[in-house]
Design brief:
By secondary structure, the chain is of the alpha+beta class. It has one domain. The strands form two sheets. The protein has a six-stranded antiparallel beta sheet with strand order 1-7-6-9-2-3, covered by helices on one side. Strands 4-5-8 form a three-stranded antiparallel beta sheet, with no helix packed on it. Helix 1 packs antiparallel against helix 3. The longest helix has 22 residues. It is elongated.
Length: 183
């Protein structure tokens, strides 16, 4: 019986662990859109509206911009005082990684815009995640200008069907083992 419990626990835990999304263009969904500069406030509002429609939600929020040449991140006011921060590698090269620590928020990254030399591609982070990779291969392979991050607040996670199926199967197996011992 201990082996049955151990196997069930292993599979349930393995499926419940969060995974880093692949944020390389090959691992993302997209590009969803391709944009030309300028990339100011009007552009951000346009992207938020597009993403809300794409995901069928109304709460996509722009979190800020990482600029490769200066290796700096400019957060939006929604992150002020939250302890949230980004860690980005690669700078103004053609590839790197990103990670978001949400601090005391429940933000999860849903989309990333990768920009170079006046052109940008928008990608959905699939599955939504707070870490991944980026590269400029789909745009033009030039060095990074900036990354823009779009997120949603996720307050709870609904178990996926396979996890529920495995848990129910494990419980049924435990019940059968107990019935055999009693008989």
């Amino acid at each position: 019986m201990n082996r049955v419990l151990a196997v069930v626990a292993f599979f349930v835990c393995a499926l419940a662990l969060p995974t880093a999304a692949s944020a390389t263009p090959a691992g993302l969904t997209g590009p969803l859109q391709t944009y030309n500069s300028p990339f100011g406030g009007a552009h951000i509002a346009t992207v938020e509206t597009y993403l809300n429609g794409y995901f069928g939600v109304s709460d996509i929020t722009y979190l800020g911009r990482y600029t490769g040449a200066t290796d700096t991140f400019a957060p939006e006011s929604v992150l002020s005082g939250t302890g949230a921060f980004f860690t980005i590698t690669g700078g103004s090269t053609a590839s790197g990684t990103w990670a978001f620590d949400p601090g005391n928020t429940d933000y999860v990254i849903y989309a990333v815009t990768v920009s170079t030399s006046g052109q940008a591609d928008l990608y959905a982070v699939t599955p939504a995640s707070n870490s991944g990779n980026w590269n400029t291969n789909d745009i033009n392979g030039h060095n990074l200008s900036h990354l823009d991050f779009y997120a949603r607040i996720v307050t709870h996670k609904t178990p996926e069907p396979i996890s529920l199926f495995l848990m129910a199967g494990g419980l049924a197996g435990i019940r059968m083992v107990r019935r055999k011992k009693r008989a």
